[in-house]
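Batch queue: ligand-bound targets. Current item pairs a single chain with zinc ion. No template structures supplied; prediction is de novo from sequence plus SMILES. Inputs echoed for audit trail.
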Amino acid sequence: MSNIQQCKNCNKHFSWKKVYLSFWGWGYKSIICEKCGTEHRITFSGRLIATFLIVLPMSLFMNFLTPFENFFTTIFNGILLAFFGSILTPFLVRFKSN
Ligand SMILES: [Zn+2]
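Prediction returned. Tokens below.
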């Protein structure tokens, strides 16, 4: 769990949950350090990584692989895949402070 973003100002480790939840909501919310209050915004490359990890596996799966006859089974597995991809994002995505 040591690879998750730290505060640029005081080096406090952000929790997985805090980083994870910052992805959900329009336009990616910034992370506020609970210790020193420094605001962190997702970097452009971080945003790309998050998009690739969540959207790419899901769309590839749904558009090209579709191993299931049933449409809803395919959708369900696509969402599941996106969920597992999103679990990894807090370890890979980087933030910058203003
Ligand atoms: Zn801090």
